[in-house]
Amino acid sequence: MRIDLHTHSWVSDGTQAPAELVASAAAADLDIVALTDHDQSAGWDEARAAAAAHGIGWLGGIEVTCRVPFTGISVHMLAYGVSRGNEELRAALAGLRDSRDGRARAMVDRLAEDFPIDWASVQEQTQAGSTIGRPHIADALVAAGVVADRTEAFAHILSPRGPYYVGQPALDPVQAVRLIHAAGGAAVMAHPVAGARGRVIGRDEMLAVVDAGLDGVEVYHRDNSAEGRRELLALASERGLIVTGSSDYHGAGKPNLLGENTTEPRALLRLLERTEAPEIEGFDASELR
Ligand code: AMP
Ligand code: FE
Ligand code: FE
Ligand code: ZN
């Protein structure tokens, strides 16, 4: 069984519509796919309908932008099975998206001094209502002929170590776990040991998130180091954390391929059992046993 629990559509920084992404997931022989756009769930309905049309299982997720207090270390928290009606979660996500707007504008102001881009050219790279981020700025730099692709843009110009970077306001991961649980969902820390992206969460901070009730860790992800995976697996068995694996597919925006890493059916079952909506659209969850 092929289960991929982490993908992005153009509702955030992927390059496909939610329905196109689901069509690609069916073509990649996935049995179950989760759509996990950054900081919002606006793509869920379209993706759910497409999954039904293609006869594959589907579940809705959100990748919530977090930052460890004081250290500034970036953490992404995957939320599964949350209720979209939860007011506290809705407000927190709306706040994140608002601040993303201001932050992206501030980066574009800095970049515009040295490169032929402006706010309008960045907005042209988004869909109405997309969660904006550095990938859209990268796309504007590509359109302006400054770099060949997103990867090149991130290597230097958009790097946190570069002169144009502006930090993104984010939630404390401990708070995010509480928020996700209050909304009836389960929380999985995405790519926790992705060293190439920047500094990763330290042992003590990680344990604080585990103590807050973290449900799982995304061990099988291309950006996680080999050493980091071993440590994560040890932590998972020590603390009973659910282990997932996923592609973090972004369409043409990243080399990541659908299903390049997958999650064991038993792990998904355990994850679902931690949520108030323990069902997969279009899929009999008892088949995961
Ligand atoms: P932001 O949240 O605006 O700081 O942007 C971070 C996003 O950029 C992440 O969600 C990644 O999907 C994306 N990203 C990070 N590094 C790269 C890269 N080298 N190539 C393409 N996308 C990237
Ligand atoms: Fe992304
Ligand atoms: Fe992420
Ligand atoms: Zn992601």
Overview of this protein structure:
This protein has 289 residues and is of the alpha/beta class. It contains ten helices and seven strands. It has helices at 18-27, 44-54, 87-112, 119-123, 134-143, 150-155, 173-182, 203-211, 226-239, 265-273; strands spanning 3-4, 32-35, 57-67, 74-80, 186-190, 216-220, 242-245. Helix 1 packs parallel to helix 2. The longest helix has 26 residues, at 87-112. It starts with a strand and ends in a 16-residue tail after the last helix. The mean pLDDT is 97. It binds adenosine monophosphate, fe (iii) ion (2 copies) and zinc ion (ZN). Residues 6, 8, 63, 190, 248 line the site of zinc ion. The site of zinc ion (ZN) has 5 residues, from loops.
Structure annotation, total helices: 10
Q: What's the number of structural domains?
A: 2
Order of helices and strands: EHEHEEHHHHHEHEHEH
Report the C-alpha radius of gyration, rounded. 18 Å
Q: What ligands does this structure carry?
A: adenosine monophosphate, fe (iii) ion, zinc ion
What's the CATH superfamily of the largest domain, by name?
Answer: Metal-dependent hydrolases
- What is the mean predicted local confidence, pLDDT? 97
Give the class-level CATH name of the largest domain.
Answer: Alpha Beta
Strand order of the largest sheet: 1-2-3-4-5-6-7
* CATH topology tier name of the largest domain: TIM Barrel
Strand composition percent: 5-15%
CATH architecture type of the largest domain: Alpha-Beta Barrel
Number of strands: 7
Distance between the termini: 11 Å
The biggest beta sheet reads: 7 strands, mixed
Percent of residues in helical segments? 25-40%
Low-confidence stretches: none
Give the overall silhouette.
globular
Question: Which class do the helix and strand fractions yield?
Answer: alpha/beta
